[in-house]
């Protein structure tokens, strides 16, 4: 059982990364590599950092709490369900890092009284500020 109030953040991150990795593996097995339909969240190459390490890095620099991490999973679910007609939008190694940082921005702004500006999130997430702003808008429209 998951106790949102008492579970340490590193435990939540580990469980979350394990879940995301299993979804990515299942998508790859069932859909194979998708190269025709590229979304704004796709990167040119698979980032060298694992999902777990990426989440730990972001949590370290933007003080994430469990409520925001759970909200990230909800946003990822909403976006992928809304794009069900578009197989390229399935979670993959090419899009998960950008989806994560964008969902973290939205979740952190919604759930926290104190949050950072997008310049901080983009620096921590390793993407340019203009792209961070564009991805945030894209996610908000897709998650309605």
What does this structure look like?
This protein has 144 residues and is an all-alpha fold. 62% of the residues lie in helices and 0% in strands. It has six helices and no strands. Helix 5 (118-125) crosses helix 6 (129-142). The longest helix has 23 residues, at 9-31.
Structure at a glance:
This protein has helices at 9-31, 51-62, 66-82, 96-111, 118-125, 129-142.
Topology:
Elements: H1 9-31, H2 51-62, H3 66-82, H4 96-111, H5 118-125, H6 129-142
What brief labels describe this structure?
144 residues; mainly alpha; 6 helices; 62% helix; globular
Helix content: 55-70%
**How much β-strand is present in the residues?**
under 5%
Mean pLDDT: 88
- The separation of the N and C termini measures 29 Å
How many β-strand runs? 0
Q: Main β-sheet: number of strands, strand sense, barrel status? A: none
Shape: globular
Report the uncertain regions. Answer: none
What is the element string, with H for helices and E for strands? HHHHHH
Which structural category fits the helices and strands? mainly alpha
Structural Rg: 14 Å
Number of helices: 6
